[in-house]
Amino acid sequence: MTQTSVTFAGGRIFDGESLHDAMAARFREGVFAELVPESAVTKDEAAVDLKGDILTPGFVDLQVNGGGGVMFNESPDLDTLTIMAEAHRSLGCTAILPTLITDRPDKTTAAINAVRKALQAQIAGISGLHLEGPHLSVARKGAHDASLIRPMDDADFQQLLEAKTNIPVLKITVAPENVTPDQVSKLAQAGILVSLGHTDADFETCRRYAKAGASCVTHLFNAMSQLGNREPGLVGAVLNLGQLSSGVIADGIHVHPAVLQAAWKAKTGPGKIYLVSDSMAVAGTEETEFFLDGRRICRENGRLTLDNGTLAGADLDLTQAINVLVNAVGVDLEDALRAATSVPAGLIGLPSGLAPGVTRLEDINRITHDLRSLSRPAVELN
């Protein structure tokens, strides 16, 4: 798209909260200006026919481990972040949190420095940093390296506080097994988004940590204590506690659609369930394998697995996740679109939706109107 002033019509417009029919979206000098009735579009306007497609704000993904053939863990530097951002932009994401999986302290330092440089350089799409570990539970490690999991000490704590001064959006995934409520409270007070995950903690422990300041949960149902009739676990805490929001990997593999449907209906607000890709190096490529800390991860039939069969991230993008929510789970299309846009954006303090004078022409998506197929629909960034 070369025009800086253009009008989109002939499809449905999602403004971040609601879908609009028979409306047109005007962009002036490359920035969203207004929604108007299609009947108000004049013949002299530069118009793009959506041909029944849906125009949406760009997706926001808070869990991105890699993309474009690279993993953040393997090379936590500015070049890697640039490649990742470009790969996910091609998949519809205009804001991502590069995610460092449990690693050595020097890798954490390198990741913090890389994101700080990316923000200073204004690399489009890089909105902050997500540190998924190393302060997790070995019992619920998933694909994380157990030998690198450890308690949060004073040096770790101070490093996070210092990182927050240069990285406005800092999300950390921690387990109660390896962090204290006092640490969580002080980190949350500093503006760090504390997410519980990779934990075997019981319901009461999770509730105590939520009261301390944890406001988020990482990939609902996966690598956490499950919902039982006498012990609700972290899954039960997500559904019962309104202050908790949670990401979910909606690929139809990590969570069965029937289970996700039940959770979606049961979730207590105001916290919400939102979509994450948990994507790895193969995102935006046709590659069939990659390596993480010397361990081979294979891509086959929509799955990413270690040689022992353990799921290692997801072969997923958020357009596909929206399709799964709508078609396999039965979530309303507006809710599914919110779960990829305004809900995660709100969690990290980004402007959400089509904001007049803020949303840029290059930060919108055009997705196919036909959502009946679970295959990946075309995403066109304008």
Automatic annotation (TrEMBL):
Q: What is its EC number?
A: 3.5.1.25
Q: Which Pfam families match?
A: Amidohydro_1
Q: Which SUPFAM superfamilies match?
A: Composite domain of metallo-dependent hydrolases (SSF51338), Metallo-dependent hydrolases (SSF51556)
Its ancestry begins with: Bacteria, Pseudomonadati, Pseudomonadota, Alphaproteobacteria, Rhodobacterales
Amidohydrolase-related domain span:
54-353
Q: List keywords of the entry alphabetically.
A: Carbohydrate metabolism, Hydrolase, Metal-binding
- Could you tell me the gene encoding this protein? nagA
Question: What name is this protein filed under?
Answer: N-acetylglucosamine-6-phosphate deacetylase
Q: Which CDD domains match?
A: NagA
What does the record give under GO molecular function? N-acetylglucosamine-6-phosphate deacetylase activity
* Family note: Belongs to the metallo-dependent hydrolases superfamily. NagA family.
Give the main EC class. Answer: hydrolase
